[in-house]
Write a structure and sequence with these properties.
Helix content is 0%, strand content 53%. The protein has 247 residues and is mainly beta.
Amino acid sequence: GDLSGTTSPISLTLDSDKVVTATFSPVEVASLTLTAAPGPWYANGLDVVALTVQARDGAGAGAPLAGMEVVLSGAELGSLSEGSVMLDEMGTAVVYLTAGLVSGTERITATLGENTAVVDIALLANPLVGALDVVQDGLVFTFTLTVTNTGDYVQNNVVLTGTIPTNTAFVSVAGGSLTGAEVATAPQTIAPQASTALVWTVQAGLYGDVFVTAGAASDSSRLSLSAERRIYRVTLPLVFYQANLSR
């Protein structure tokens, strides 16, 4: 049999007892690369970044280094799907980084023998910033949810939502529609530094708490807000006067 070349794994068949002498030489790595799929990527605990590692032989014509184990390390803001990967017949393997909830630069290192490759992945902070404004006019409450894209990239499929408090009656909505006990906008695109709003009005009862939640979500970001108001019923005493009526 022949164990030369870069094919791995490889088998050698023996049909009788033999003395086998093996001479090993170190694997020469011409190139070890580690690349990340293009972002942007956000520190939302949801984004999954595909990392591709590839190695080629330095002894021959740059043939793929199949069957070699590459160790991955460095995930501090997120988590890697695997700590090591085996290169396929093309000398390539894919590992996945799941983003954490803290923004920053995640540096991932691939190691094969004495060779290393590094890739830096920027995990961006949540670009959706919002404010929930409440205006009360007697027992009528108007809620305004304003959301701004403070990032440098377009936010796609942004949906603003708000609830109808349990002890209130729905009156109207602007910029969206009512479904059940929730108002929502249609999915929309928000350019960098642009804003969008959702406005809805409810009628409260004579007493109780008015608690509303609102939020926004895009393909990559989440935002949650809430507000509470308490309504007090004022009871006026009834005073009876005794009077004699006569002509």
